[in-house]
Amino acid sequence: MARIVLTDIEGTTSAIDFVHRVLFPYAREHLPDFVRAHADDPEVRAAIDAVPAETRDGDDEAVITRLLHWIDIDRKATPLKTLQGLIWDTGYQRSDFTAHVYIDALDQLRTWHAAGIPLYVYSSGSIAAQKLFFRHSVFGDLLFWFQGHFDTTSGGKREANAYHRIAAAIGTPESDILFLSDVEAELDAAKAAGMATAQLVRSDTQPESHGRHATAATFRDIVP
How many CB atoms neighbour CB 213 within 10 A? Predict the structure, then answer.
């Protein structure tokens, strides 16, 4: 029996459509002007400078073009995730949108938190973006339920070593952690690292599933 819950966001606690139909288009629309306006801010500059290191692009305009392409192909690149998080911060602060959370996820996360089960998040979105997401949910501020957050700086979600790093950061054996995701390849990596796993197979997402993991239609079907 796992005593800690580590959860994905997109397709797990929250609808994929919110990310793809709201957050990604918002970031794409605002990214060029945001980069131009904030290019001298240290955090933005660091993200911009990290792009040429990966792609050998030239000036900031070429970087903007590259970033927009990454949004279009949904590339899990840390510089892009950093900039998206900063742009979404502005959107949340303006109340341009609020983050979708499934009602069953809300109810069960609340129950686990009240029962003293430590909750953590591991998503391809940046840690800053994760915190914004749960702070500005449709149900209000849920951020205080979570004890920690992990993103691609811990490694790719389909790499077993990332889950080893997360367990080490939490300070617990991998076997103490239950990882929740809708993506079977991510669960495969977590299981290979020694974590317990459960796949969310929701009717509105219908993810690929081959029976390698326990499945649940909602969070109410999951027992850590």
Answer: 20
Longest dimension (CA), the chain: 52
Q: DSSP 3-state assignment of 189?
A: helix
Q: Could you give the C-alpha distances from 152 to 58, 94, 124, in angstroms and in order?
A: 25, 27, 6
d(CA 48, CA 51): 6
Question: Is the pLDDT score of 53 beyond 80?
Answer: no
* Cα(106)–Cα(58) distance, integer angstroms: 45
In this predicted structure, what is the pLDDT of residue 9?
Answer: 96
As a whole number of angstroms, the distance between CA 62 and CA 197 comes to 41
Judgement on whether residues 105 and 210 belong to the same structural domain of the protein: yes
Phi, psi of 200 (to 5 degrees): -80, 115
Report the CATH number at residue 53: 1.10.720.60
* This prediction's pTM: 0.86
Mean pLDDT of 214-222: 94
Q: State whether 11 and 120 are in the same domain.
A: yes
